[in-house]
Specification:
130 residues; 5 helices; 72% helix; mainly alpha
């Protein structure tokens, strides 16, 4: 329920913008509303307790990585970040969130892209430098 409320709050400005846009006709608006209903249904299928677990694990991992960086263990921090990124990217709850995000992006392209874990991205960046 909390996620649905957050989604509505995030999308309200976009919906207002769409209503005021000269390029948005009634048919486009109805299509957008149908897709947003599907997004809401998609989000309702996500187990909030698992989402909370992911958040707690991510926060703990972030603290661990920051600790490794502050102690000068850059290589271990980088390996830990990549390993956790791979693990979390395969998590079913996160995959469902990504699916819902992609649906929302289709309805409102102005929302931007849905980011996924890309190990290649870490080849030129170091987690301790971010």
């Amino acid at each position: 329920m909390k996620i649905a409320v957050i989604l509505v709050v995030l999308l309200t400005p976009a919906l207002a913008l769409a209503q005021n846009s000269g390029g948005m006709n009634q048919s486009n608006m109805q299509n957008m509303m149908q897709v947003m209903q599907q997004v809401q249904e998609c989000m309702a299928g996500i187990d909030e307790s698992k989402l909370q677990e992911l958040q707690v694990r991510s926060e703990k991992m972030s603290e661990e990585i920051e600790g490794l960086c502050s102690k000068g263990n850059r290589d271990k921090a980088q390996k830990t970040a990549i390993s956790f990124g791979k693990e979390i990217a395969s998590d079913p709850t996160l995959k469902q969130m990504q699916k819902c995000g992609e649906m929302a992006q289709g309805a409102l392209p102005m929302m931007g892209t849905v980011e996924t874990f890309d190990e290649k991205e870490y080849a030129n960046k170091h987690v301790c430098d971010q």
